[in-house]
């Protein structure tokens, strides 16, 4: 599990619906679902060896919520293929065979140590997924982990939803607030706010369909749309150069570039040749992370990690990331056969390595790659 979230799918959903579900989960933590996909937020930023028990019942099992720190439920329909898919960004999906049908799904987790970075890529949190037929009562209220000395994080502010456009709808809508107050809002204002929110989420422009297929593409576009547009408009040679450059800069920033098991991979990447283990195949990613725990993985440079109490939105790539762990995925994404996907996903991973200093990376790319300038519109 990575990026603090994982998804359950029954084979009936649309991948385009996943980002709105993530927004819903952030504004009503710790989960959201639409009957075909369920998004679950984890207190931990990651766990690359997260154990999950899957249990299927013919009726709702006895309640043991007191034994777990986070519990949430939602309805999920399993398609005719009978496959429950569990997936998280940057991780390979897992599949479990389940009889087709509509289920109440209960996801429970425990063993948490922190909201955010857990101090390792393999913390001790464990999870359980229970599936049982819908009994007409609907999902029960979620239980969230109350972290000692910290509490429970607040929900994100929900994105405004556009009003329907039928001619017979009222021109004014009553908006109710949690404190019981209310106010009248013009429907046109809500539509305008929703349109502006969509533009803001895409860096000031309309959604870029191609980018929606890239991991982290929308977030990168929101942070630096001109850079993303320039990458998409350049030729495949320059796009590949961007990927190689971003991976190298991330390794330098994290202090990994000169380690004896990383330097050969960077050289091979620059020469467009096959990378040696543990970077030859994404299936070896666990081995690469394991090497970070070894004595020879000590960073060769000192990196300043910013700790701040500013809002998370001020640091879209994270403020307190451990650069070494954020850098490893960049060495895999840079090898993607699609050079534009390689460039955007590697810049995204490198931006996460830089964290609160991501703007430095983007400035360096624009400064040090004149080939990209000439191939793009030149609008910076």
Number of domains: 3
Helix content: 25-40%
Q: How much of the polypeptide forms β-strand, as a percent range?
A: 15-25%
Structural class: alpha+beta
Major sheet: order of its strands? Answer: 2-3-1-6-7
Radius of gyration: 22 Å
Low-pLDDT ranges: 304-312, 375-380
Textual characterization of the structure:
By secondary structure, the chain is an alpha+beta fold. The protein has 3 domains: 129 residues, Substrate Binding Domain Of DNAk, Chain A, domain 1 (Sandwich); 30 residues, no CATH class; 167 residues, no CATH class. The protein contains 11 helices and 11 strands. A hairpin with a 6-residue loop joins strand 6 and strand 7. Helix 3 crosses helix 4 and helix 5 packs antiparallel against helix 8. The chain is globular. The C terminus is likely disordered.
Summarize it.
With 380 residues, the protein is of the alpha+beta class. The protein is built from eleven helices and eleven strands.
